[in-house]
């Protein structure tokens, strides 16, 4: 190993041991282009090398799973010949370096993952987390990310129908930007990322390749930030939603006409991934000619061509007699295309440039032989101290409620979601700012409900219970729209995997998510891991985000809505009685306290009962609302604000606890019989004030509404 | 009576417009922007979206598409031509409607229901509606603020509350003959009670009736 070469592999983010593995595979030292390919494909972002050993814990099977984890997106059967494709991904690091483009290309990438499967993307969700808005830099990041999601999502023509926004000091120097996409397709249009038979041709479709995003996966997404992070700006890709829109339409036409045998998008690791993974999956080799790649910069070197993460590109694998038709479709949609490779017998990936071989490697080795690390995991020594920290005490419930409603993470998200087209395609029955989004499937009686949930403070106090509760909360969120949980995707945002304490949090979270999924009988069909969410060696709170897809079949004719409360209706709390715990609650955060205490454990059997009850009630009850951030008080206030009516609580209830498996039902007296052991009447809809108890100061609904509506604009100084 | 629904690269509301017109009994076909013969059609809709990525300026590139020659011919012959959102912007760029568009007053994209008031009932959009009646229809645009220094457009619908700084709070504008109209909000998004409003049907029915009358 020469000293010069050692420097190169380290610069590309590879360890000495990993470099030695490459030598062992090849039986020689790698050429420049080969080293480039291994470095990106074996990066943490692409190879899941620190997480793979643990991801096998997830339950992934169910009769309705068509494609599980490992492909570009998970696919489930929703009946009547329809399939749904779903995928979630993070774009945390690029969004910190350049918020607009980081978020925009996150949207572009997640769309490609879904339409690669043959699906038309019908909805986007985003889960974004920042430090508090009193810091100018956090305001800049928040506005930039929202503008990037809007700029790309609106122009590409896929509605952004939901998501969540949270502000917490833990994300001060490391915002989280997760994006999720749902698509639907007819069963016979499913396409996989396979290179097909020898003789198939690889056609690169879409935007010309440039030097943007070189090493995005290895350099940016797989290391934490220090002071020089601004220098990494050239590693952030730049998106072009117009190119992506044309690419979507062209690809959907290719699928509809049965012109491709397989498709792979070019995301992280670019061309390296798009030729090696499909070849590896199909057990074939491939000849690739880099001179055929259409470029928009002159004199690009083989490593640059192989590592570039230029956006809006797809690789289609096509039988020889279909090539002309594929190119004609690309021409019609006004996108570029080029035959860049040919599938061959064997397992060798051979890459040529200017007539010389620049890479000759076993295709599958890039994906299959990536290192797997079972990194040490140790329960954090500080955890017991944290769990002994005090929980908040509430002297003035009305004051506490107003503080919560005015918090930008709890108040109205309208400032965010009115910047997103959330109505395109005429499917949005329930849109952003609700427990779950509900999209109808035109031509059927079905609805698809999606909820995304994360809670770093809860997971910080107990990652296993936190992981479990996220799944139960998301499941209840879709249930109150009338949908049963069908599949889960997860985005695991964690600190450095080289910290044993982070690895313990990671393992515990996976255990929690897995247990809840097993209890509900819901498979995990895909996910994403984002490590190294740390700046200056401070790890973020463990922040798994669960995206849960539910199926309402049939969809309620008139699904419950918060605005449907009417004077005189009764307010019921359904679910187990709260324990009173405020550990990790929104109230604790809003009061400026560090997260502390021991969160309540979930009750799996209760969870199933409550979810089933909610699904049944959704067909008859005008208002159902999950109790989560800010507890019963916030849930009730949201109903009052949406309905422009007051409410009075006349029973002794826990106002702010976020204990799981609870929802509010509002309906006419006697209209709906509820099981005694599971439901309690707590008050009624009346007047124009929110009255939280007998001796509590009333809050005019107009005041609560003003505080809630303006939470984000006020925090932004607008 | 057939309506051409024109698709430019980057258009994204074409399927919604076809869905809405067909749900009202209309006959609508997608037409690619390179088409140069629309003689089989009785009217045309230019749907919303981001034609040519809205690059350069909204509608600035789309107006040069081959199909626009035919759209101009239909407009001159008195056939109903309706531009929705980006389609409205294209009709302005093509000189078929008065005025031009600038960014919303608050410089942010607005996707939200707005209330509209009928101000002129003699256009392809408002035939059969009563002046003063109100409609609730979603708005979805960034460059949604209409300006017309010549003051030559006929304002068919105005915003009840000004969302974007549009001149005279104009939400829909027609030519002097009334057969060419542009509307910034999306009537095709308000055709189903389940999704929040059916007021868009009134506007689209007016368009379909105009096909028969023309």
Keywords, separated by commas or semicolons:
heterodimer, A: 718 residues, alpha+beta, seven-stranded mixed β-sheet, 28 strands, 34% helix, globular, B: 214 residues, alpha/beta, nine-stranded mixed β-sheet, two-stranded antiparallel ribbon, 11 strands
Question: How would you portray this structure in words?
Answer:
Chain A is of the alpha+beta class. Helix content of chain A is 34%, strand content 23%. Chain A has 25 helices and 28 strands. In chain A, the strands form 5 sheets. Chain A has a 7-stranded mixed sheet. In chain A, strand 17, helix 20 and strand 18 form a beta-alpha-beta unit. In chain A, helix 23 crosses helix 24. The mean pLDDT of chain A is 94. Chain B is α/β, with parallel strands linked by helices and 214 residues long. Chain B has a 9-stranded mixed sheet with strand order 2-1-3-4-11-10-9-6-7, with helices on both faces. Chain B has a two-stranded antiparallel sheet with strand order 5-8. In chain B, a hairpin with a 5-residue loop joins strand 10 and strand 11. The mean pLDDT of chain B is 97. The chains are: A alpha+beta (718), B alpha/beta (214). At the A-B interface, helix 8 and helix 10 of A face helix 1 and strand 6 of B.
Q: Which radius of gyration of chain B do the C-alpha atoms yield?
A: 15 Å
Beta-strand segment tally of chain A: 28
> How many alpha or pi helices of chain B?
4
Query: Low-confidence parts of chain B lasting 5 or more residues at pLDDT below 50?
Result: none
Strand order of the largest sheet of chain B: 2-1-3-4-11-10-9-6-7
Output the number of helix runs of chain A.
25
Helix content of chain A: 25-40%
Outline of chain A: globular
Please give the alpha-carbon distance between the first and last residues of chain A: 59 Å
Oligomer: heterodimer
- What class, by secondary structure content of chain B? alpha/beta
How are the strands of the largest sheet of chain A arranged? Answer: 8-10-7-11-9-12-13
Counting helices, strands and paired strands, the structural category of chain A is: alpha+beta
Sheet with the most strands of chain B? 9 strands, mixed
Mean pLDDT of chain B: 97
Low-confidence regions of chain A? none
Fraction of residues in β-strands of chain B:
25-35%
Query: Strand-residue fraction of chain A?
Result: 15-25%
Order of helices and strands of chain B: EHEEHEHEEEEEEEH
Shape annotation of chain B: globular
Q: Radius of gyration of chain A from the CA trace?
A: 26 Å
